[in-house]
Amino acid sequence: MKITENLFMYPEQGTMDSNTYVVKGAPGIIIDPGNDHYLPSLIHLMQQDGIEPDDIGTIVNTHLHGDHCGANEGFKDHSGASIALHPVQKANYRTVVVEAARLFGMPPDEFDEDEIIEGDTLMVGDIVIDLIPAPGHSPDSICYYLRNEKLLVCGDVIFDKNTGRSDLPGGDGDQLKESIERLAELEVEGLFPGHMGAVIGADNVAENFDFVRSNVFPWL
User: Fold this and answer.
1) pLDDT tens per residue across span 19-54
2) Global pTM value
3) Is 1 part of any domain?
4) Alpha helices of the chain — where are they, by DSSP H?
5) Distance from C-alpha of 140 to C-alpha of 135, rounded to nearest angstrom
6) Side-chain-facing half-sphere of 79: CA atoms under 13 Å
7) Mean pLDDT of all residues in the chain?
8) Is 71 in contact with 38 (CB distance < 8 Å)?
9) Per residue in 171-183, pLDDT tens?
């Protein structure tokens, strides 16, 4: 589903899946390929938008829970793209990938990265993407801020009128609140979470931050 000329969103398709985002470029990046079970359908949806797997050069994640990264290896096999981790994701790999899976009695969705991201930005053509650490839901959560377009891919840090849970391994409610407050300082005209729908329009985004502060923060 085309959001802007460069950003595409593919909503989660079922249980233990996540929203997937593609930033077109030469090559492009994919954020959170989701659950490997739904990968054939994801690729089909991308192709309907004129995006082939080999148009993607880099696979990144908002965090390493299995519903977001389970298809990393599968998408790599289809595309030849490299899997890139932020240093904070590498440092917290075992806690987030292995210990969280054990909590649910599931095998961990383990994978090998091809590279570690250096610096705090990614470049996709002339698109600048700021990498913003935002711990709380998980210690390795990274948000992707398309600076010029004022669009924020925020994983499970904040949703439409809710937040990600903070009781999984490495989670922390106070950290999550602090992360959300930092994100609220950005100019955001589109909020694109890991689950459920997007929040479009600067006023709606601001209202969503206010709603979460008033109605969700007391429970974190």
Assistant:
1) 999 999 989 999 999 999 999 999 999 999 999 999
2) 0.97
3) no
4) 39-48, 66-69, 72-79, 87-91, 93, 100-103, 173-184, 202-215
5) 6
6) 29
7) 97
8) yes
9) 999 999 999 999 9
